Amino acid sequence: MVKPRKTPSQLLHVSPVPLYTQIKEILRDRILDGSYQAHEQMPSESELMSTFGVSRITVRQALGDLQKEGLIFKIHGKGTYVSKPKAFQNIAELQGFGEAMSSMGYETFSRVVSIKSMPAGATVGARLNAEDSEEVVELRRVRYLNRAPISLDVTYVPKSIGERLSKEDLAHRDIFLILENDYGIALGAAELQIESMLADDYLARQLKVEEGAPVLRIERLTLAADGRPVDFEFLYYRGDAFQYRMRIERSSSRRFS
Fold this sequence. Notes:
Layout: H1 19-32, H2 45-52, H3 56-68, E1 72-75, E2 79-82, E3 87-90, H4 97-102, E4 108-119, H5 121-128, E5 135-145, E6 148-158, H6 159-165, H7 175-182, E7 187-198, H8 201-207, E8 214-224, E9 229-238, E10 242-245
Parallel strand pairs: 3-10
Antiparallel strand pairs: 1-2, 4-5, 5-6, 6-9, 7-8, 8-9
Helix pairs in contact: 1-3, 2-3
């Protein structure tokens, strides 16, 4: 039997915020800060009723909202469990990882693996409109979602931008937001290529997965509003923890052909 932890604060019974919402936020915080681990069984409805001093229907409303958010799941006859985070990002909207995830309530941060200057080479040079021998800056970061590694981002930027970025708080800030808000570079669009691959030894160590585990590889070139390339990336996402989504419309001309 799972014992409920003490509430971090008393519920406010005289409050415009409903009791079930207050309970949901308390439980949600515990899930996001790791107090409740992925696949751990949650306290039963009866235990939560006793802990919070509320009715069963209030507890069920709170749990129902958490289930809709994908933070918990139920197994009939066994109880309620914490879901393993599987976030998604709207591929039709140009956003940084932290920007997209924080808007959905996820906790994110980055671990900077390395920052170095290097010759662009043929592939990166072609994407950034640079000569093969021209210096660019490579930034490697492991992105964390609810304190679990979810992606390795390998980013290439012109040296003039990279030297400034190397002094920024890249652990907690998205490069896109820094470019726009701090450097005054308006971003316009991005070109993406997506494919699946298997994790090699290096990716497996960075993402804490088995070698050979499925990985989503995204190649992304981000352009400024004036069309010049400012950011070229290889993004490697854990296949078991992340997905891209998009909405597409059928062309009206097709309906009448």
